[in-house]
Structure formats: C-alpha cells, structure tokens
Predict the 3D structure of the following.
Amino acid sequence: MDSDTRAREQWVVQPLVDAGLPLEEIRELLFRLAFEDIVSEGRDTLACAAGLAAGRTVEVQQAWSRTIARMPALGLPA
C-alpha cells in the first residue's frame, strides 16, 4: 500500500479520530458497515449506515456521517 492510499484512508476516518473514538470502535463501525453491505448485497446500505452510530454521542454520529461522505474518495469498486 503506498503512502497516498494510506493518507486517503486516514483522511476518511479522521472525523472519528477527532471525535475521540478509539481505534477499536472505528474498526467495529467499519466492519459492521462492510458486513451490512455484503449481507444486503448493497441494498439499503446507506439507509442502515446512520443507524450503526445510533446511541453514540452527537459528535460521533456527525463524525460518522462525515466519514461515510468521504468514502467515495477512496475510489473503491462498487
């Protein structure tokens, strides 16, 4: 993985880091999002994305929304 890719990945999750979320919880959110995408075959993934941060502080919910919005910048295949 080159340094540009790492920098983009860091930029994507930086809102969660800035909100004070521990790395393990960031991983958990991302894993749950990926799992939901796989089992739903892509249907309703965005609809469930916000729900993954439900019950967390407003700051973390907002950071999660920013993280989701930044994900397309990674240029991953659909």
User: Anything to note?
Assistant: The CA atoms of residues 53 and 61 lie 6 Å apart.
